[in-house]
Design a protein that fits this description.
The structure holds two protein chains of two kinds. By secondary structure, chain A is of the alpha/beta class. Chain A contains 14 helices and eleven strands. Chain B has one domain (15-287): Alpha/Beta hydrolase fold, catalytic domain (Rossmann fold, 3-Layer(aba) Sandwich). In chain B, 38% of the residues lie in helices and 16% in strands. Classes of the chains: A alpha/beta, B alpha/beta. Chains A and B meet through helix 10 of A and helix 8 of B.
Chain lengths: 418, 288
């Protein structure tokens, strides 16, 4: 099993009464709450934490893309990934977002990701999300009715730009480019592994199966609510005759490790309540622009049982404002406990959901650097060894980067502090 | 109302039956004649028609025409009302084929021609008014006289148009109509309609409007208003919470031909739902 360390880069100093006094953490968050001097510290701590995770043995480190968002300080994950490429050696760099329709022309994504792949020596995972409504339709003004059409065209263009050996003309519906000739080109051939962060739509599952991409369910609501979605995914894979290789699936889980469950309850209460109470305080008016969901998804939402779970999610989301830590843990949003307890639970989660690429949020909410490093360290030393071998006896991970051998990697000069 | 019912009840058996069943004290909304036309690339579109007299074409607002409204009844009392469905709005599909303004204008022209409404008086509400104005600017001969109820299309950042696509569920009706009950009644699912499909149809209409208008801003109509030669009536509800009533003046100052502004006291953005009789009468008077 692959264990990946994921950072959302939340702004850690939202006021205590944020949810009462402000309508939304996203899109129209009050910019007067942003202190760039504090952000200077946050960015550097967060990048330290990602580098630290790579040092202590996580297989990959993950960044993602959000816009006008108080819990995601990475409008450009590629900037962070570029720095990580230089400061880490072996970890996979999992960029779980460039929201393809936001880049004009989309070959920008092909170029920047090719740069990252070259700089890192072939350690890039290319994540291609559609992007949330808040990011794409509201913050970036994309037309919700065209978003998916543009996303798919951008995807086709990027993959062709990575694989076509000669310059070509692209006469797409939305993009007209007379000369496509990406330079630099990705180090991994034919291109870096592609992972698709998605919600629970059947179309996305089918598309991932068709293209042989990793489907990654990035929910903030833990394994209990995630189960229905992952079950739906695996049923669809079975129906399509795809082998049930757990490495086809990624899943995100919040985790807090301590010496005991009681200590974990104490340590992780504040950051969890901060995240679920303040960071997820999203104004409902930005949640469902017309056309963002396909009609099939819309019908399914009304009809199917999978979607009753999804509705539960949105109800939970509503109710989670100011939620107590006891409930957060009870619902499975955050897994806590001693290293052994956490390992047991995660083994259960990975097995139940059939997940090979397990992404862990070990920093969440306003968790400070010290606790984050502690959590990461405990996980690496005492949880990770217990999970390592899962799946590997039977399944091969076809969706992992294939970097240059260590002997061929370029040396990186030691820290220059001038 | 009795007079209008008498006038429209003469053309078909369906309407005659409807008239007979009308309760004397309340306005009975009748079932219009329905036919289908083909719009190239988009597919079939429903055309509703009622009344006799000089033709008047109506392009519906943000939710299209999920049902035949009292407003059109009033117009149909004096005129032959032709109400074709724009792509993606109830009764028609194909909005996902339309990528830019040129596509929408061409589809609207195709629709008007296929419906036999080209060259007639053209009345539009909200998003339908935007397309009516565009058509009048691009193709002068397609429109005789023009009546626009609260069109989108201009944007003044000192008094911005509201984002009608970013509303919390409970606030939609009050945002679009001065009387939320009128909005709810307009969109209420009739007996026998499938609940899921009714919902999907409504979201599709919202999507179609968004496909044309998103993100809400100036789509260049301001640069084309001088092309509109048709005498134009601008109708605005004084309580429009989406496109403020002051936009009437902005439109008027850009228009090339004869312009008249009618403010309707107490009506909201979907003014034709809030004040059907007042607006229909103003439109009929102007188009006379």
């Amino acid at each position: 099993m692959k264990l990946l360390w994921f950072h959302l880069m939340p702004y850690t100093r939202l006021p205590e009464d944020f949810a009462e006094r402000h309508p939304s953490v996203w899109v129209d968050i009050d910019s007067r709450l942003f202190d760039p001097t504090l952000a200077h510290g946050m960015y550097n701590e967060f990048m330290d934490e990602l580098e630290h995770a790579a040092e202590v043995g996580f297989d990959g480190i993950c960044v993602n893309e959000h816009h006008q968002n108080g819990y995601g300080l990475m409008p450009s994950p590629n900037l962070i990934a570029a720095s990580l490429a230089r400061r880490t050696r072996d970890a996979a760099l999992v960029v779980m977002g460039n929201s393809l329709a936001l880049y004009n022309p989309p070959v920008r994504v092909a170029e920047e990701m090719a740069m990252l792949d070259c700089i890192s020596g072939g350690r890039l995972v290319a994540g291609f999300p559609v992007g949330t409504p808040m990011d794409t339709c509201f913050a970036y003004g994309q037309n919700p009715s065209q978003l998916r059409q543009r996303y798919h065209e951008a995807h086709d263009l990027i993959v062709k730009a990575w694989t076509e050996p000669s310059p070509f003309a692209w006469n797409g519906r939305f993009n007209k480019l007379r000369y496509v000739n990406v330079w630099p080109r990705p180090l991994q051939k034919p291109h870096p592994p592609i992972w698709i962060p998605g919600g629970g739509s059947v179309e996305t599952w089918r598309w991932c199966a068709e293209r042989d991409y990793v489907y990654s369910y990035l929910s903030y609501f833990g394994y209990k609510l995630g189960k229905a979605t992952m079950d739906g995914f695996w049923q669809e894979m079975e129906r399509l005759g795809k082998e049930p290789n757990p490495y086809r699936a990624g899943f995100l889980q919040f985790v807090g490790v301590a010496e005991s469950r009681a200590e974990a309850m104490e340590l992780y209460r504040e950051p969890a309540e901060y995240f679920y109470g303040r960071c997820l305080h999203v104004d409902a008016r930005y949640a469902a622009p017309p056309g963002y969901s396909s009609e099939a998804t819309l019908r399914a939402r009304v009809q199917s049982q999978v979607v009753q779970a999804a509705q539960l999610v949105s109800n939970e989301r509503q109710a989670s404002t100011g939620r107590r830590f006891e409930d957060i843990v009870e619902q499975g949003y955050v897994i806590i406990g001693s290293p052994d307890e956490v390992a047991d639970q995660l083994r259960q989660v990975a097995t139940d959901l059939r997940v090979g690429q397990l992404m862990l949020l070990l920093q969440f909410g306003n968790m400070d650097r010290q606790l984050t490093l502690h959590n990461t360290e405990l996980f690496a030393k005492r949880v990770m060894p217990q999970l390592r071998g899962l799946w590997d006896d039977r399944w091969e991970n076809h969706w992992w980067p294939r970097p240059l051998p260590a002997s061929e990697r370029a040396p990186v000069r030691e820290r220059a502090r001038a | 109302m009795a007079a209008s019912a008498a006038r429209v009840g003469t053309r078909s058996g369906a309407r005659a039956r409807a008239r007979v069943s009308a309760a004397p004290t309340e306005r009975k909304v009748r079932v219009p004649d329905e036919r289908k036309v083909r719009v190239p690339r988009c597919g079939e579109a429903r055309v509703w028609e009622q009344g006799t007299g000089a033709p008047l074409c109506y392009l519906g607002g943000l939710r299209g025409l999920p049902r035949w409204p009292a407003f059109l009844d009033r117009l149909a009392a004096r005129r032959r009302v032709i109400a074709p469905s724009l792509p993606g709005f109830p009764g028609a599909r194909g909005h996902e084929e339309l990528d830019d303004l040129a596509d929408w204008v061409i589809a609207t022209l195709d629709l008007l021609e296929a419906s036999g409404a080209a060259g007639a008086d053209l009345v539009g509400a909200s998003v339908g008014a935007t397309l009516a104005a565009e058509v009048a600017a691009f193709s002068r001969e397609s429109v005789r006289r023009l009546a626009l109820i609260a069109p989108f299309g201009l944007f003044d950042e000192r008094e911005p148009v509201a984002d009608a696509f970013a509303l919390r569920k409970g606030e939609v009706a009050g945002m679009l109509c001065a009387d939320p009950a009128k909005y709810e009644a307009f969109l209420a699912r009739p007996d026998g309609e499938d609940e899921i499909e009714w919902q999907v149809t409504q979201v599709r209409a919202e999507e179609a409007a968004a496909r044309l208008l998103w993100p809400t801003g100036d789509r260049g109509l301001g640069k084309r208003l001088h092309r509109i030669a048709a005498p134009t009536l601008l109708v605005w509800g004084s309580q429009d919470r989406v496109v403020p009533a002051s936009y009437a003046k902005r439109f008027a100052s850009g228009l090339g031909g004869l312009v008249q502004i009618r403010s309707v006291e107490g009506a909201g953005h979907m003014a034709e739902l809030d004040a059907p009789d007042a607006i229909a009468d103003a439109v009929l008077e102007f188009l006379r």
